[in-house]
Each structure stands twice: as structure tokens, then as C-alpha cells.
Specification:
mainly beta, seven-stranded mixed sheet, four-stranded antiparallel sheet, 0% helix
Length: 123
């Protein structure tokens, strides 16, 4: 199993940048694909970004493509989400999630979740 803890959320103005971190524990972290999801108030949770277990083949939601970047360091058991040119519509609780198997963008394919970190972007 793997345990995930997100950090790095905060309050900032539109146009700013923020990096979220996801710290993983578990001896086989490199076996897991990790993705970022987010859930805005009153909305369903949605896919944001993912990559394979090596950190390659990144995929992004259209709404964040060109602004967000996912990266990971298996030796440090860390995954990051660099968010640039933030918009008010990026306001949400951001979650990292992990799974073994093929890379997926559907939340129902992920078995392990962190507790989430709040990102609030003001206009």
C-alpha cells in the first residue's frame, strides 16, 4: 500500500504560481502511477494531471494544459504539481491519488488518496 499527503495549498491572486507537493510512503512507491485531481465547491471531482511511474508521458486536463506541470522523484517519494498563471476557476481542493496498472484519468480507477490541500485563487 501507499499513503499520500498533499501540501502547498494556499490563497493567492490570479496570475500567480503555486507548487503542490504529494509525499508518499510505502516501499514500492515506484510501482504506482500518481495523478492529481481537484474538486471545486458544488462540483464533481475532476482529473487534472498524471504521468507514468517514471514521470514520463504526462497527461493534462484541457483546462490546465500549458499552465500546469506534473513531476515526480521516486527516490524522494515525491510528486509535484507546478501551477502557473492561476485563474479563479482553479480554486478547488487538490488531491493526489495513486494506482498500479495502466495510467488512467478516471478517479474511480485510483485506490489510494491523500486528504487534499485547498487552493484558492482570487480575481
Amino acid at each position: 500500500q501507499v499513503q499520500l499527503v498533499e501540501s502547498g495549498g494556499g490563497l493567492l491572486q490570479a496570475g500567480g504560481s503555486l507548487t503542490l507537493s504529494c509525499a508518499a510512503s510505502g516501499r514500492t512507491f515506484e510501482s504506482y502511477h500518481v495523478a492529481w485531481f481537484r474538486q471545486a465547491p458544488g462540483k464533481e471531482r475532476e482529473f487534472v494531471a498524471t504521468s507514468n511511474w517514471r514521470g514520463g508521458d504526462p497527461e493534462y486536463a484541457d483546462s490546465v494544459k500549458g499552465r500546469f506541470a506534473i513531476s515526480r522523484d521516486n527516490a524522494k517519494r515525491m510528486v509535484w504539481l507546478q501551477m502557473n498563471r492561476l485563474k479563479p476557476e482553479d480554486t478547488a481542493v487538490y488531491y493526489c491519488a495513486a494506482r498500479i496498472g495502466a495510467v488512467k484519468t478516471n478517479e474511480y480507477n485510483y485506490d489510494f488518496w491523500g486528504q487534499g490541500t485547498q487552493v484558492t485563487v482570487s480575481a
